[in-house]
Amino acid sequence: MDKKQHSKSTASGSSSSSTTNKPKKTSSSSSSSSTAASVSTMGRSAALPQPARRIIQNFLLVWLDANIDESKEDFQNSLKHLRRIVASITTFTDTRQCFDFLSGITKEKAFMIVSGSLGQKFAPEMEAIPQLESVYVFCGNQSYHEQWANKVPKIKGVYTKIEPICKALEIDRQRCDQAMISISFNGLDALFMYTQLLKEAVLEIEDDDKKSIKDLVTYCREQEDISEDQIKQVENEYRNHTPIWWYTAETFIYPMLNHGLRVMNVDIIMKLGFFIRHLHNHITKLHREQENNMPKHFQVFRGQGLSSEDFEKMKKTIGGLMSFNNFLSTSRNRNISLESFARPAAKKPNSVGILFIMNIDTTICKNSLTPFAEATSDRDKAAYNHQLGWVYNRMGDYSQALPYYEKSLDIYKKILPPNDIGLASFYNNIGMVYYNMGEYSKALKYYEKDLEISLKALPPNHPDLATSYNNIGLVYDEMGEYSKALTSYERALEIRKIALPPNHPDLATSYNNIDQLFEHHNQNHSTNLIIGYLKLHVKRFQSSSRKSQRSKTRTRNIGTNEQHLSIKMNKQHDILVYKMNDELYSKSMINNEKQTSVAKLVNQLCLMLV
């Protein structure tokens, strides 16, 4: 039985989307504007002089589409998803303005979302912009645009929905941050000495943490690339978490600190001075707690990209000293550092993928003033468990996948809001595992929880809702509750008819699942299902029948005995009978052996309904 669809296809999007200009928030901004960030739209007019940008992170996002329509609800939903990854978003309808804007970037990296038509036309120009890190093609015809996009190195993929873009963007943003940590290849160079002096000064300052947090919040609200939600999170919750938690959490703190230390922005460093002290002291405390249990010798790894220029500098310092002018994150897992960071960096133009292998001798490190400690964030633990669950699930080892998925969900439930749309996907994944294991009642429980969150977090006709209803229908089908299965399949189909283009494969999935529901169950069940199907559709058929002003006679072949039922289309009853029969036959919901009896059933039912 070829019934399908468990994985969440995520939010739909359109290449004809845009952003809106919004006023900058002040410290007294209302909650209704809490999701706003730096967003601007550039039109088709002649290129305008650009004001100085106040960017304090390493990256920004541009969205180029000639058909931008900022009034679309679909676009506003897409913007909310993107702001969780990159707060500074600028949209363009004019290609020249977009490229002029990108050319003016000197200290940051840019990511770009581009429509299929413009991406195809201007691919060589995009490749030539050194500040442009990655490109994501957002279109309505994936297979067509993949033919040219796969040949362009900077293009990370072709997408028809916004969520996959967000996932790819989040990964690329992390890699970008990791690669942009400032490195000195000679221990006596000016940058190294300046960094050391500044660090010592910051660590010796003693001030009021409450005032420091207030000053940081005020400063961040004056910038263009920090969302109000994240600012409020730091303002209200800073003392609820450890410094290492904040350093690894999805907030502005890590990229802001990284950017400040990389470009030696004293304003940023001083505003984050209290956090630098807290993080340094936290690592020192953990080091004291862990040093007696640490092995004498061990290895850690770090994968990242280096520019070709920096790589040449590094080769010249073989046997010398090098320093990372920041807090340094490493991993004991060589494969994660290699596959997640070093190898992808090697695929970029003018970039070299580097895997640093660091041999740690704790006896030597005891004499160092730089503390180190082993720390794993909750988010890292959750992501690690989810990845293992995904691997085992792909292997078909569902009993192994389940506990990893459940551990991941338990952690995410602690760090995410209860109705965060990300939780819906985790519930869906566990439901899918239970479905594959044949434990349908448990699968239903998780699928329904997925639907509950999705209904609160998504627009009413969002494609992910259709996936949730479809998966619930699959479970009811397997449990033998065919009427409930039909209702869920129908709801999925209704949403997909509204949200998706008419030739979308998910529509075929819905029609196929309804078809299979009729095809693979016995006559008694089929009869009940057909009655249910007709009742669901009778009002729609009646409505369309009233609009019909034509009167003609049509003959249709019904059944294997080639019995003919002549239907004169001049009465409401006859119109209704014909339309219902046509609906059933056109979707292959009944086989030839049942057609004659079904035709009689349709006729009788319509007599009762009209």
TrEMBL record:
Residues annotated as signal peptide: none
SMART domains noted in UniProt: TPR
InterPro entries reported for this sequence: TPR-like_helical_dom_sf, TPR_rpt
Region annotation (Disordered) ranges: 1-36
Organism: Rotaria sordida
TPR repeats: 382-415, 424-457, 466-499
Comp. bias (Low complexity): 8-36
UniProt-recorded name of the protein: Kinesin light chain
Record keywords: Repeat, TPR repeat
SUPFAM superfamilies cross-referenced by the UniProt entry: ADP-ribosylation, TPR-like
